[in-house]
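Closing statement on the magnesium ion sub-project.
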Amino acid sequence: MMRAEVRDRIRKGVEDDSPRRPRTLSKSNPALVLHVDMDAFFAAIEERDNPSLKGKPVVVGGPKGSRGVVTTANYVAREYGVHAGMSIAEVERRCPDAIHVSTKGGKYSWVSVQLMAILRRYSPVVEPYSIDEAFLDATGCSHLFGGPEAYANQIKQAIHSELNLTASVGIGPSRIVAKMASGLEKPDGLTYVKPEDVGRIFGPMTVRTIPGVGPSTEISLNKLNIYTIDDLAQAPMSMLQKFMGKHGRDLAETIKGKSGAEIIAMEERAEDKSMGHEHTFHVDVTDLDMLLSRLLYLSEKATRRMRKAGYVGRVVTLKLRTHDFRTYDHQRKLDEWTDDPLKVYELAHELLNDLWRPGDKPIRLIGVSVSGLVRPDEHHGVQHNLFTAATHERRTRLLHAVDQMKDQYGEKVLGMAASLESLRKGW
Ligand code: TTP
Ligand code: MG
């Protein structure tokens, strides 16, 4: 993917570098994918746990009067134009009566675990996609529940009765169609898009409504006279390939329903477990060295947590928020599982190069996390030959010694020299 495209990619894109397990499908057994997306997830949990909030505009995020942003808003607040990513200052202008609630990550993660457990009762193949979203392979199971709609209804009811929360569900012949369908009737929606209806329902919509199509992809498509999903489906593949590379071709094929039905089984995808840290700068940063120094510090901190918990990980995600509150996530896979801060840092550095160069917008927040976490064993260990084994052994011992010192004397006592720079300057 071109750097410019990566930079403009929206956070909730459907792209995924994870390995996929292809399934065999036949005409008599066409793919059926179900997508569940909880409604106003964090805000709904807060309302559920504090009934005095019911019916009022609720905003979850930075406290009132802060430089923070909205993490999510309930549907009452959305009527005032409040949305995720908006500054708290703007919320105060648009909706002065809004009730501000601070984000409580641990609580929401626990509800997410409960949600995924419910979903696993309904399909052997569940792919958690974000904290409040998942894809289910419904191909072999929906008929057991009386057809796709009855199946989806039972899942919605289980979520409602067990969690006291509402979800919107989409069903379709591919992941992308199911995901787009779940957004059509939010909140508390249920939308079944049959293969023969995909064109009629989505064809007239703009390409920007496709998850993963950000402003820069939209501009590339518009330059090719492609404005709607219909235009995209009719464009010759060779033209898309030439102007937009693999990304364009994949997009068109998915819309035509030629790919995208594969689901990644939960066991194969450990990325829902992740460990990381992020930092909001007191002053927006334009200096590359300062970002790199902070990145090294965060990589050390994240891998230290992993070592303590006994995990090695494989996917590194860099998060950046620019001064205008736009947030970008970018991730890539390492060649092998690791808990080594330098390996994580090196990849995070590459990801930063993809997203940002000196002279670009000032950075307000930077974060790094490692996912695809597993317990090291013979399948997930680092492969060593005789030459590298001794070096690895020494480095592992050194890292554990440094961890112990830090536990005893605090973060600043020992750290890789460069990472101390950003701490010393207090940014
Ligand atoms: P979403 O499903 O995007 O939003 P939502 O569930 O609040 O609302 P909707 O009804 O439109 O689905 O995200 C799920 C939760 O993830 C959301 O409640 C808050 C959190 N979140 C972030 O932490 N950062 C973000 O940038 C976004 C978009 C969401
Ligand atoms: Mg949601």
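The chain has 15 helices and twelve strands. With this model delivered, the sub-project is considered complete and its resources will be redirected to Aim 3.
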